[in-house]
Amino acid sequence: QVQLEESGGGLVQAGDSLRLSCQFFGRTFSMYAVGWFRQAPGKEREFVAAINWSGGNTDSADSMKGRLVISRDNAKNTVTLQMNSLKPDDTAVYYCAVDWQGDGTTWRPHNEMEYDFWGQGTHVIVSS
Fold first, then answer.
1. What proportions of the chain, in percent to the nearest 5, are helix, strand and coil?
2. Whether pLDDT at 114 is above 90
3. Could you give the CA distance from residue 16 to residue 11 in angstroms, rounded to a whole number?
4. Distance of CA 101 to CAs 29, 48, 71, 115, 125, Å?
5. How far does CA 73 lie from the centroid of its chain?
6. Per-residue confidence (pLDDT) for residue 103, from 0 to 100
7. In angstroms, what CA-CA distances link 57 with 2, 6, 41, 70, 106?
8. CA pair distance 60, 43, nearest whole angstrom
9. What pLDDT score does 106 carry?
10. What is the reported pLDDT for 99?
11. Which residue has the higher pLDDT, 104 or 123?
12. Confidence of residue 104 (pLDDT cuts 50, 70, 90)
C-alpha cells in the first residue's frame, strides 16, 4: 500500500517563497512519477508540476513556469516543490500524487486519471 504525505504549506505574503514536500510511504518509489496538483476554493483541481521516475524529466503548468523547481530524492522517497514569487492566485490546497511507471506506459503528467495514489493535501495561502 502506498501513502503520500504533503508538508510545507502555510500562510505567506505575495512575493514570498515556499517549499512543499511529498513524502512517499511504500515500496519502489523510484518507479513512480510524481505530480503536484492544486485546487483553489470554488475551482477545479489543476496540474502544477510533475517529475518522472528518474528525475530526468519535468513539466510544469504555464502559470508556474519560471517560478518553481521540482526535484526528487529517490533515496529519501521525497519530492520537493520549490515555489517562488508567490501570488494570491496561488492560494490553494496542493496535492501530490504518484503514477506507476513500471509498465512502460507513456508519461502524461497533466492527466489526473494517470495517477494511482494521492495525498491529503497541504494548504497554501498567499496574502496580498
1. 10, 50, 40
2. yes
3. 10
4. 10, 19, 17, 10, 32
5. 14
6. 82
7. 23, 21, 30, 10, 13
8. 19
9. 86
10. 96
11. 123
12. confident
**All cell numbers assigned to 121:** 493535501
User: What is the rounded CA–CA span in Å between residue 15 and residue 110?
Assistant: 26
Percent of the chain surpassing pLDDT 70: 100
What is the Cβ-side half-sphere exposure of residue 38, based on CA atoms within 13 angstroms?
Answer: 22
Confidence of residue 92 (pLDDT cuts 50, 70, 90): very high
Say how many C-beta atoms besides its own lie within 10 A of residue 42's C-beta. Answer: 5
Are 64 and 83 in contact, with CB atoms under 8 Å apart? Answer: yes
Q: Which three cell numbers stand for residue 127?
A: 496574502
Residue 102 has pLDDT above 90, yes or no: no
The kind and range of the H/E element at 73 are strand 68-73
